[in-house]
Design goal:
Blueprint (H helix, E strand, L loop, with lengths): L4 H23 L12 H13 L22
């Protein structure tokens, strides 16, 4: 059983790191921050930073997109 423990740790770490890698990349942060999510206290701090900081890929205001010039189709 002790032979499989490192394998389970690696698989469990990948299950945590890969989604956070994609979330950080889509939020405009460096994706390697996902690797830090396996560190116990750092993951809580990064989760709060991710939740409360402005994402760089979002428009600054909701009305950033222009209004189309054509009438709506019925």
């Amino acid at each position: 059983m002790m032979v499989f423990l490192p394998l389970f740790i690696i698989i469990g770490s990948l299950i945590v790191v890969i989604p956070y890698w994609m979330i950080f990349k889509k939020a405009g942060f460096p994706p390697f921050l996902g690797i830090l999510m396996v560190v116990p206290i750092v993951n809580l701090v990064l989760l709060y930073v991710l939740a409360f900081s402005p994402w760089k890929v979002m428009p600054p205001n909701p009305n950033a997109y222009p209004v189309p010039n054509y009438p709506p189709q019925i």
